[in-house]
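--- STAGE predict ---
source: upstream dedup step, 1 unique chain passed
mode: sequence only
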Amino acid sequence: MKTINNNVELLSPVGNFECLKAAIQNGADSVYFGADFFSARASATNFSLDELKTVIHYSKIRNVKTNLTLNTLIKNEEFEEAINLAKNAYENGIDAIIVQDLGLAKKLIELFPNLPIHSSTQMTIHNLEGAIQAEKLGFKRVVLSRECSLEEIKHICKNTNIEIEVFIHGALCISYSGQCLLSSMIGGRSGNRGRCAQPCRLPYKLTSDSKIVDEGYLLSTKDLCGLEFIPQLIKAGVKCFKIEGRMKQAEYVATVTKIYRKYIDLAKSNSSFFIEESDKKDLLQVFNRGGFSSGHLDTKPNQDLVYPKKPNNMGLFLGSVHDFNPNKGYITLRLQEKIKIGDTISLEKESGTYTISELMINGKNEQAGYLGDIVKIGRMKGNIGINDKIFKLSDKELSNSAKQTFSDSEFKKIYLNCNITIKKETPIEITIFPSDNTGFYKDIKINLKSDTIPVLAIKSPITKERIISQISKTGNTPYEFKNINIDLDDNLYIPNISCINELRRLSLENMQELVIHNNCENVLTTKKLNNDIKKNNIIINEATENYSNNESITILLNKLDINFEYNKLENIQKVYLPLNFFLSSKYSETINKISNKFDTYIYLPLILKISNLNLEKILQTFKIKGFVLSNISHFNILEKYSSYEIIGNYSLNIFNNNTIKELSTLGLKTVTLSPETDKESALQLLTNNKFSDTEIIVYGKTPVMTINYCLIGKSNKCYSNCSNSCSTNSYYLRDRLGFDFQILPDNNSSVTTIYNSKITSISVDFNSDIKYNKRIDFIDETIENMQNIINTIKKGERLEGDIYTNGSINRQVQ
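--- STAGE serialize ---
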């Protein structure tokens, strides 16, 4: 459906103004950055509202697009502030806004119809159906989940018109973005709110039957390096390559941007595509976690996705300690990489870093050592032993080279054409316009006349060469003249040659001003915005009649035991059964018994990559009341099943009533609140919800991660010689404090769900007028335990003890 072309963007991360210059001066086509609030990288420096204008202007003048990351979940009381942030960015010329929250995204699409809204990777769009649904909702671009393979990306690009953006380099989360609650559940810092504490970078032990199967940094992924996939991804139709790293330093941004610019340009040319080892090494030098991996791009299983030995920057392996003199602090080693005075290193058993200030070869002080040299480096102290590994963390020469690109010099140039007319007794006239009539310089032309009038020369007439020399002095500006055409009468003299300099200066200034005026001044008055807010019924803490008129109890059976008599359970109205059970004849009899007594719903998994679901056959075989949707792709999948009741799962990340309203327009009858919802927020969502029934999960182990990785097989895909022990044994991740997180693999999709170590058990008592449905999530409970839990919840009570937690209900998640 999509026309494939070479107009692919390189999108670089910006955490501060120095990073902005680093990205643009090294060839970024577009940049992305956050404001002081509502950014998924809240710990980055980010920009104030006043600084946004400067950032946007700097970028536009250099023909670079700007993307604002407004990609966190928004509470009701924050909604108006989020809209006003978008308004501020819009008025200053932002080119796109990246959004996670569905309610906010839809409002921005309605309020700012000319402003592209991009679906953040936090929306977990990982299949064709999700991309199609995003297109229907009005998004201009989808940032796909990083778990998508090259083949899946090709399929999505081929069958949609929406722009596709993919991550090409940088840190990978082990969990699907937008679906990680681990930081939130154990520490109250939500990744969905931009404050992830990165518990995935901590050590864990993999256990089975209380035995340690594996240990280390088992959730810490290597960084992605997608250089080799660039030609195929361009051919597939990808619109934008995204570099991760808003928390990184400017040297990192400069180096990575420069290298990816080089290979994107090479891939767009018809030259042979070859990656130089020196470029790979520079990428490794600026940051890597145990080397790089291809992430999930390759269609083959990636058994090199995780690096379990160390979770942070490794640098380059420099060599091993051959000898150590603790008195003088001398370390002797044979170099595996070049090293110079000023480089920094780290040692295997030491947490700190050292700057090389003393370097000796054969007893002589040297400035540098090279591959194979036996060198002695001085002034080292600490826990150092023979054969300890040494790593080169930074290269002073590489760092200085990167810094030069974001100094005060201009390396990013806009090429211009110039026509200058110098006629007898006529004011000198100049016209400048871009050589490449694209981007923010499209159809821009500046024409100026000087007060200076040429006269007949007495001795030395002005020459074209002199005029070209004067015009070409663009100096440290973003401009460079590519073609200068001069219409010059013979034998003329210019009384004041500085007028040529002044024409050049003024024309360039006018060009900058015109670029800003044409592209950065979107006037939208506060009055108009307020009218649009009212017209679009934005809900901001306005109490309305609660829609819910039910207080039913629902159970989700994450596991199904064919020996259990579920039909004997009492005091429940609904049962959610995961789709996998319907795909195996082994469970048919058990499902029939359940569906004949209770309203039964097919619980669709968050990650759905199965092409043929056989829904028609399932619906003909079993008595099904409806579906539980876990991802926006499911709206598209279930489009022709509108007669069935549709329930929205917690994984839709419902944080405000605008999101509930939008989901109800898509057909949802019931919405399940996020486990990150606190009591006050839940009350607001209930009292403002006039669109659907509301469901709260009051019991169960909360899924804290959904990962495209098997911790047992150590791969992102199931492979032929796997032992499949996950189907017979129970596995847990044990953290440093001794808490065990249960693991539930799904062989159909190579997806693993990790559950919280404690069971959430809450009793939320609002008042008699507030009603909501209660959901219970079961995994390993016996039938007897299930019934006791159901009875306890029906009485409005919660279970007490060390194995239980209130989750987020009594605290505000940051």
